[in-house]
Amino acid sequence: MAENLLKFVSVERQSPEKRDATARRGDFDEIYQDFDPDRASLQAARCSQCGIPYCQVHCPLANNIPDWLMLAAGGRLEEAYEMAQATNTFPEVCGRICPRDRLCEGNCVIEKDFGGVTIGAVETYITETAFAEGWVVPPRPATELDQSVGIIGAGPAGLAAADRLCRMGYQVTVYDRYDRVGGLLVYGIPNFKLEKHLVGRRAALLADGGVAFQLDFEVGRDASLEELRQRHQAVLIATGVYQARDATMPGAGLAGIELAMDYLTASNRKGLGDAVADFESGRLDARSKHVVVIGGGDTGMDCVRTAVRQDAASVTCLYRRDRDNMPGSQHEVTHAMEEGVVFEWLAAPEAFLGDDRVSAVRAQRMRLGTPDAGGRQAPKPLPDSSFNLDCDLAIKALGFDPEDLSVAFDAPDLKLSRWGTLKISEASMATNLAGVFAAGDIVRGASLVVWAIKDGRDAADGIATYLRATVARETSASVAAE
Ligand SMILES: Cc1cc2nc3c(=O)[nH]c(=O)nc-3n(C[C@H](O)[C@H](O)[C@H](O)COP(=O)(O)OP(=O)(O)OC[C@H]3O[C@@H](n4cnc5c(N)ncnc54)[C@H](O)[C@@H]3O)c2cc1C
Ligand code: SF4
To answer: How far apart are CA 210 and CA 214, in angstroms?
Structure first.
């Protein structure tokens, strides 16, 4: 099983076994099987150990990819895990759901001629082996400190910060308005991309390490930001972005037009065994319906693939640009096509048609204009090109904006950017309010899990620096007073 490196010339790129599309359509299980040990070490051995590891440069966490590939190729999996988790709080999550074609793998030096190394799959394999072998342990600090940190939001940003702060010895309480830990990892991203027990496993480790979770707790309703600032020496805001962008067009008020997050949350809750009235009533269930999903991002791809699994009569994705310009991962588009989703590229919705309920979407063909300074081509309508798509369920997946936290948190002094995200100092992740920090989508706008993890880790470091300075100030003040 121990493999020499530089095998990319003789060994082809291979991902773990992908389940057959027909079988995939019948359940919500993950679509890839686990890597077997031989294949994992052989694939890791394809790494060219190039001088400048562009994979690492393009990984938001700057993971030491060539080093853990080398260790995995040599069968030294415990060391590989130690190295992988030193920079990534949840390597098994990123290995599965990072859009790797745009990050590490897409920038692998051998990608162009030989196909890049299957970095994500090896990262997942290393971490799953670590769990199976009992190498993954709760975050236990060497010394416990008195100071406490309140974290608002149990998504990947909040959890990554909680893990790091707990390891440093701080008392950590995470507040979330959901009833489960995980944020979009649980209620947004479907099971076929990330099985929910993987998130529960991490939540249990954090709880074992001493992180306290207060769920069904909405800041703004159950406490103000100011109250949390009184309760803790520092507060981290990691609340994500949840205000759905909308499309105003004729017929927008008809029944049968739904928001992507409502639809995905209902499906994820069903999968977790919850009773969901709007699913049981058929409102958020695609079964036997002609489904049209508007939007070409990750959320849109999750909606079309969920609808396929709910046994929809047909599923169409409407996107106003072409495939090359889709914001969603190309891998996800491929999976969706294999599973029977029809893509109407270069097509934008004009109106929802129907009497009380939607019965069709009228769309218009588009072309791409000349690229602007940033290289982006604006879609332009083609005259007289309208067409109708049968539709009993239209799902709007048009992106998300932040809620206005200065209002929601009753914190009028909290500084926001012109996009409504929180303004922070990039060096410290601090907002303009003393002792209040921010991380994840609420700072970046809708982004990626790997960036949320990076922000959460950076914010934890910023908080620790702030708290150490506070202690030093208090100590010197009390010495001066004696
Ligand atoms: C459908 C969908 C699919 C996606 N797929 C991918 C993918 O494949 N790969 C990828 O990398 N990224 C994906 N993303 C993006 C990714 O999920 C986010 O970038 C990431 O979850 C952001 O993490 P976060 O911790 O900042 O926020 P979130 O995960 O949104 O967590 C925020 C948490 O804060 C809580 N909260 C909010 N307000 C309050 C309040 N007032 N009081 C208490 N708690 C509050 C929320 O309940 C939530 O639990 C996807 C996003 C969506 C919507
Ligand atoms: S965290 Fe994401 S970008 Fe970084 S190595 Fe893993 S899969 Fe690639």
So the answer is: 13
Report residue 50 as tokens.
Answer: 């190039």
Nearest CA to ligand 2 atom 3: 59
Question: Is the model's pTM score more than 0.70?
Answer: yes
Q: Is 156 in the pocket of ligand 1 (CB under 6 A)?
A: yes
Please identify, by atom number, the ligand 1 atom nearest to the C-alpha of residue 302: 1
Contact 155 CB / ligand 1 (< 6 Å): yes
pLDDT tens-digit profile of 91-117? 999 999 999 989 999 999 888 888 999
Considering every ligand atom shown, identify the ligand nearest to the alpha carbon of residue 105 and give its number.
Answer: 2
Question: Tens of pLDDT along 311-347?
Answer: 999 999 999 999 988 888 888 999 999 999 999 999 9
Distance CA 65, CA 123 (A): 9
CA distance 450 to 91: 9
Q: Looking at 206-253, which runs of residues are DSSP E strands?
A: 212-214, 234-237, 243-244
Judged by DSSP in three states, 257 sits in strand
Task: Report the separation in Å between the CA atom of 260 and the middle of ligand 2, taken as the mean of its atom positions.
Answer: 26
Contacts with 211 (C-beta within 8 Å, 6 or more apart), sequence order = 139, 162, 163, 166, 172, 173, 174
120-175 pLDDT, tens digit per residue, is 999 999 999 999 999 999 999 989 999 999 999 999 999 999 999 999 999 999 99
Q: How far is the CA of 104 from the centre of ligand 2 (A)?
A: 6
Closest-approaching ligand to the CA atom of 178: 1
